[in-house]
Amino acid sequence: MSIWTRISDALSALANGESLSEVFDRLRTPPERSIAFTIAVIALGAKMAKADGQVTKDEVTAFREVFQIAREDEANAARVFNLARTDIAGYQEYARSIQRMFADDPNTLRDLMEGLFHIAIADGQYHPDEDRFLSDVAGIFGLSDAGFQALRCRFVSDAKPDPYSVLGVTPDTPPSEIRKAWRKLVRETHPDSMMARGVPEEAIKLAEKRMRDINRAWDEINGALT
Hints:
By secondary structure, the chain is mostly helical. It has a domain at 3-159: TerB-like, CATH 1.10.3680. The chain is 69% helix and 0% strand. It is globular. The N and C termini lie far apart (54 Å).
């Protein structure tokens, strides 16, 4: 049984009256947690794609970029997306459920936020309603305002990423500590580390941009220090 069939079954349970908390309770431990993560990206992504009033082809394509979908799984994947888009549960309910599941793993919540940003900017515009949606979800996830702005500046073209914010340091941080922060982020962004956190293999592609941003930030700071 493919992951898409299992995800489709989980969302069908929601459509048939089972509560979100009941479904997520069955998905609390690896490898099932990867299904919960995928449902969260699908559900929140589908609902966010409607935040600006429409779901564009580019946003659906961005969803497909996050999750590598085999041809034989396309029908189930489309069903999952449509179920999530029409489900009556509010996005806050999904966000709170996934926050409880990954409360001890903020890195996975960050992975999810990056996937949502990727979908939000896919149509070349970052709508104010999408910004409010993402800010609200980030708050539910426990992400600080500074952390949200650091993510935002990496994805939204109206702000140049601050290299210190990307690494989670300040210009006053000692160079040795900046190096440690950079190395820690590189380790956390490695595909093996992400899979150990229960992130599905399909979503590992999310880390590629983050790794580029982390290394670019380090190069910029290191160049200024030398």
